[in-house]
Q: What sequence folds into this?
């Protein structure tokens, strides 16, 4: 577990580390001057995320609400959970999220990618996905897949994802 | 654990159940008269499959070999593993396989679907996939997905899978 103290100067850290354990990777060049000099953006792979805060993030992009019991289970059984945080002083706010299922050997599939509207179009979604791909690759996963809505196909394309390579089709089951 | 005895008449069962524990669901109307009156086809969700037998099955359809260490891990961390067996007397042979990753809550993705060439074009692949979908649905998974090679898109289409619904694209990551 990495505490806030690893992310801040010693004086800030002393106060913050007493209250909130936080494992985070700073995003280089991101967020530093966003609102003021104290704002920073971090990624985390901790999956102990407040489900109400996560729901608020998903609400902000207009997703249908899902039972928190199932969201909790999905987080528990995901192979990788990535979240993105804006940290100002001792306060933090979740501003992005994504997770991946996997067989822990060959394949991973990325689901539920969301960036808060206030933080879109600044390269943060791209940075979060790059972070995610890097984490999956570091776990020796060779086949990273996702299902992209039409309006984000180009976004993922710029990250190196190919739609329908060699004619492979993404398919969804529906009852007869 | 269900033993052979549940699958056969009492006399066969007594001998077989001493040697091989086997959890299987008989495939109605399949295999009964395939080679002779003793041949039966069964499905199983047991994941303790001999990896060399599985490799032989995958060899038969021309798949590239994969490290057995990773195959074992993938089986372990799959949400569902389905195998299909031909049983003649006390002998059984694996003739089909498929597995699914999942978050145990919303999504499942089906991988590595294979039917031995000797048993293709007889409705067995279709029966195996229906069995798989039924199992996933019984676990309250609502979103069942897969990535289909071009030559099997119609096969999955007949099972109720839709390619690119609402323009959603299956995408694969490749290094820049």
A:
């Amino acid at each position: 577990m990495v505490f806030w103290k690893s992310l801040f100067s010693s004086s800030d850290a002393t106060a913050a580390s007493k209250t909130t354990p936080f494992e985070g990777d700073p995003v280089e060049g991101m967020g530093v001057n966003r609102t003021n000099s104290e704002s920073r953006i971090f990624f985390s792979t901790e999956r102990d995320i407040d489900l109400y805060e996560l729901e608020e993030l998903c609400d902000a992009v207009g997703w249908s609400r899902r039972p928190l019991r199932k969201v909790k289970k999905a987080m528990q059984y995901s192979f990788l959970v990535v979240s993105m945080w804006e940290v100002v002083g001792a306060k933090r706010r979740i501003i992005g999220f994504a997770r991946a299922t996997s067989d822990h050997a060959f394949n991973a599939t990325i689901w539920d990618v969301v960036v808060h509207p206030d933080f879109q179009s600044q390269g943060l979604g791209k940075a979060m996905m790059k972070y995610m791909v890097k984490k999956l690759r570091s776990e020796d996963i060779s086949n990273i897949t996702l299902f992209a809505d039409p309006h984000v196909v180009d976004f993922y394309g710029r990250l190196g994802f190919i739609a329908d390579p060699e004619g492979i089709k993404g398919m969804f089951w529906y009852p007869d």
